[in-house]
Design a protein that fits this description.
The complex is a heterodimer.
Chain A: E1 3-14, E2 17-28, E3 32-36, H1 43-50, E4 58-63, H2 72-78, E5 79-82, H3 94-104, H4 110-119, H5 133-146, E6 151-155, H6 163-180, E7 183-188, H7 192-195, E8 200-205, E9 208-214, H8 215-221, E10 222-228, E11 240-246, E12 250-256, E13 267-270, H9 273-281, H10 291-297
Chain B: H1 2-44, H2 52-64, H3 68-97, H4 100-103, H5 110-142, H6 159-179, H7 182-204, E1 212-215, E2 226-235, H8 243-254, H9 267-273, E3 276-283, H10 288-316
Antiparallel strand pairs in B: 1-3, 2-3
Classes of the chains: A alpha/beta, B mainly alpha.
């Protein structure tokens, strides 16, 4: 597996509060990875450390094998970053934003950036301050893509966008990834919008990595078991209960299945990614991590 | 980086440059307008046969003396602009609008971004202050000796003026880095710069070197020394005497009992006869260039320290 970003025992402390603690994960290259978790889970902190905007408190993080704070020039040349509020100079025109990108990035591709924005109907002489939210997001994406990054980091790229702008943004993103084969990590606290574009998932919860895996595998690995009301969350075999819901008449268990089949008196249903994510977020003690990362973390 | 720096600071830069051009032109016009009178003074005064030298000096002061005070005031305030409009927004505006996250994640590292911006805008500040310092010197050195004391124009004519501007710029950069908001950083420059300038001019500059105290001769101290404090009458043991006693003695000297003041009257000798001396503390005229160097050094070192502080703050933000 080619690794775009990897972290080992990574931690970040603000004052005496740990925003991120003992995080170990490897994000594969060439994939679109969704980084999900509730607000304050440490998503932004992780992304900011990946581009060297924040220094690590403990452990280490590397991007294509380089440390963002010790070899910033090497990392910055290969990473495109769109911060949460998509900051741009409001007094600049769109053309001047691209000129900024051209002056500050060695691998800048002006033609592609101009073509993208022209196709979206965003004139280069428009002032940034006069753009709609969706256009502003597209200009931010164009600036990040114009440097021809190998890894694109998007922090809550869809926040404050209306549904149409969200769809167009995601469409633009998927097209680029298909054409260029770059790696993407995008954070969100809304799972539904990630399911369609992401193929890899990282769940951060309370500053810890809770789940890492391919979305297909995660979906295949989790089942909803339904049976008449049970008093205990007891199931045969080696499945792990992530979430148990009991009503008067029936019990529903969201489980990570093991190697043995589930007892036959349980009705087995498939679950959506969103249900899986919500089950894990509701149960911070549960985890689904690939074994190799766990070993390395020690 | 050069293009970006120009694009972001061109408005403030152009306004500041315009201000510099206007002030420099006004001073230039003043120098040209005063030239005929200055030539006359230069021509007449070395040969003091009649009172034409005195008359020319009086005419000069009547016409151009009134510009001295506003000019000094303008040169006191002008460096503030470098800090408020160029230094303070350099980091504060980025931090305030969150654009630091955008610009520091382009291909140029944060360190290089900061060094390049500070270098470009710092040199622009030095260049503009240099132009003003040159015109200030033109005026100060054109004004004839005896028209006013050289120390009066200490801070409008040389490297020290450039150092003030650099200090102001650095104060703006550091305040912007520490506060992260433009308007408060500008306020810090305004108050901080004037406070430091005033403190050094009023309390520190006179102590750059230990001042000299000598006895006042009847003919005075010479126009170009920096007199510190008033004349001090003392007795022969160095104890100060009351001003009433001193006036009495001086009166007695100037109006002797026999009614006649001798032609070769020596007030100092008369004081000595009455057992008193008059002391004056001062910085000698010859120390003027050295004092300018010391003043320059103080502000340049302070500017470097402030810029170092700003770099440290930016690194620590990580």
């Amino acid at each position: 597996m080619n690794v775009a970003l990897s972290a080992r025992g990574l931690g970040k402390r603000y004052g005496n509060r740990w925003a991120l603690r003992d995080c170990s994960l490897r994000v594969p290259a060439g994939r679109i990875t969704g980084l999900v978790g509730p607000n304050g889970a440490g998503k932004t902190t992780l992304l900011r450390m990946a581009v060297g905007l924040l220094e690590v408190t403990s452990g280490e993080i590397s991007v294509f094998g380089w440390s963002p704070t010790e070899q910033p020039a090497l990392v910055l040349a290969r990473v495109g970053f769109v911060p949460q509020n998509r900051p741009l100079y409001r007094g600049f025109t769109v053309g001047e934003i691209l000129q900024l990108g051209r002056h500050l990035n060695a691998r800048w591709d002006q033609g592609v950036a101009v073509a993208r924005l022209t196709r979206l109907g965003i004139g280069l002489n428009r002032k940034v301050a006069h753009l709609s939210g969706g256009q502003h997001a597209q200009v931010s994406l164009a600036l990040a893509l114009g440097k021809r990054p190998d890894l694109l980091l998007l922090d809550e790229p869809l926040s404050n966008l209306d549904p149409l702008a969200r769809r167009e943004f995601m469409k633009a993103l998927v097209e680029v990834v298909a054409a260029e084969g770059l790696s993407v990590i995008l954070s969100s606290h809304v799972v539904a919008e990630l399911e369609r574009v992401c193929d890899h998932l990282v769940i951060l919860n309370g500053g810890h990595v809770q789940v890492v895996g391919d979305i297909d595998e995660l979906v295949a690995l989790h089942k909803l078991l339904i049976a008449p009301r049970q008093d205990a969350d007891v199931i045969d075999g080696d499945a792990t209960v992530i979430q148990a819901t009991h009503t008067d008449r029936q019990s529903a268990l969201l489980v990570k299945v093991g190697s043995h089949p589930v007892r036959s008196d349980w009705e087995v249903h498939d679950v959506s990614l969103e249900e899986i994510v919500l089950a894990y977020l509701g149960n911070p003690a549960a985890a689904a991590l690939p074994a190799p990362v766990m070993e390395k973390a020690g | 980086m050069i293009w970006l720096t120009w694009r972001q600071h061109r408005l403030e830069g152009l306004i500041t440059a315009l201000l510099v051009v206007v002030v420099a032109s006004l001073v230039g016009i003043l120098v040209v307008a005063a030239q005929p009178l200055l030539d006359q003074i230069k021509h007449v005064c070395p040969v003091v046969v009649d009172d034409s030298c005195g008359r020319a000096l009086i005419a000069f002061n009547a016409r151009f003396g009134m510009f001295q005070q506003p000019l000094n005031l303008a040169f006191l305030v002008l460096p503030v602009f470098a800090g408020m409009f160029i230094g303070a927004p350099l980091l504060a505006r980025e931090l305030e609008q969150g654009t630091d996250e955008m610009v520091w994640t382009q291909g140029v590292t944060r360190r290089r971004w900061l060094f390049t911006k500070v270098a470009i805008l710092g040199w622009a500040t030095i260049a503009m202050a240099g132009i003003l310092a040159v015109t200030g010197r033109q005026w100060s050195t054109a004004v004839p000796d005896g028209s006013y004391n050289q120390w009066f124009a200490f801070d409008v004519q040389g490297p020290e003026f450039v150092a003030y501007a650099l200090f102001s710029f650095a104060l703006g950069v550091a305040a912007g880095a520490a506060i992260g908001r433009t308007v408060p950083a500008m306020a810090v420059v305004l108050v901080g710069f004037l406070a430091v300038r005033a403190a050094i001019e009023i309390f520190v500059r006179r102590e750059f070197l230990p001042p000299v105290t000598t006895e006042v001769s009847g003919s005075g101290q010479g126009g170009q020394a920096w007199l510190i404090g008033n004349q001090q009458p003392v007795d022969m043991h160095g104890n100060s005497i009351s001003s009433g006693q001193f006036d009495e003695i001086t009166n007695a000297c100037l109006h002797p009992a026999n009614g006649a003041v001798p032609g070769n009257f020596d007030l100092q000798a008369c004081w000595h006869e009455h057992g008193i001396r008059v002391l004056q503390t001062y910085q000698p005229a010859g120390r003027f260039p050295l004092f300018q160097v010391i003043e320059t050094a103080i502000f340049v070192i302070a500017a470097i320290a402030l810029l170092g502080f700003a770099v440290w703050l930016v690194r620590r933000r990580a």
